[in-house]
Design a protein that fits this description.
The chain is mainly alpha-helical and 102 residues long. The chain has one domain. Helices cover 67% and strands 0% of the residues. It contains 3 helices and no strands. The chain is elongated and about 60 Å long.
């Protein structure tokens, strides 16, 4: 089986639209969470393609459990990076708004 043969069947990532009341920080957190969820889904899709008998041997809820476990692990491990990026964005926004009063 060609390593890249199953990539053509993957759908593009779905990204929800920004709501009118959503802050930049909320949007960053939401988009990051969506990315983590999509990585979890892709991992399950990989298992389905490469090891169909393994997933057939477990309840359907195992797929959702694995997806959510991967999502939660990514969110937990990457949280410090996300928070640092949000803080940097705030600093840049304050600087560009003229926050350098001397």
């Amino acid at each position: 089986m060609d390593r890249n043969s199953n990539h053509a069947t993957h759908l593009p990532m779905k990204v929800a639209e920004r709501t009118a009341t959503e802050t930049q920080e909320q949007r960053a957190r939401r988009l990051f969470d969506e990315m983590a969820r999509n990585i979890g889904r892709e991992a399950v899709n990989h298992l389905k393609a490469m090891y169909p008998a393994a997933l057939a041997a477990v309840p359907k809820a195992a797929e959702l459990s694995l997806t959510n476990h991967i999502r939660n692990d990514i969110n937990w491990r990457m949280r410090p990076l996300l928070m640092a990026m949000i803080a940097m964005h705030r600093e840049w926004a304050e600087e560009s708004a003229g926050g350098n009063d001397e």
